[in-house]
Amino acid sequence: MAIRRATQAEANYIVQLSGKVMKESSMGYAENGVQNAYNLFMPIIQNGGYFLIDIENGRVRGWILLATDWNAVKGQVMGNLLSAYVFPKFRRSGVALDLATAAINELKALGIRTIQINVFDGNPSRILCEKLGFKPVSTVMELDIQ
Length: 146
Known about the structure:
Order of helices and strands: EHHEEEHEH
Protein name: GNAT family N-acetyltransferase
Domain N-acetyltransferase: 1-146
Oligomer: single chain
Low-confidence stretches: none
Strand order of the largest sheet: 1-2-3-4-5
Organism: Mesobacillus jeotgali
């Protein structure tokens, strides 16, 4: 197993894959769609964000997108963990923990003091986030009006 920064070609491939798992990773909130993934993640990558990938025997087992951004509320640059995904075959094997830890360490090396992650309601990855020390800070609520 190796965790490393994705190449440009791998990042494009992962964005395409992300479009195919959006519904699952958002607990049904977002529809699958490669174009949706490009619209969501390419601006982040163009602004300096990048994927870390877990790769074994030439096969991607999972990924996490990390980025930094100015947070006006906190008055500081903060890290963001986005688009974390592990293929079902590799879940419960430590891949997600290894990816998240590597991403946290990379952000820490950049001098980032606070990291945020968005976890959709009902997503079991919330347990891992809490294990890593993440705490809820807000709840996004939504009302559909017809």
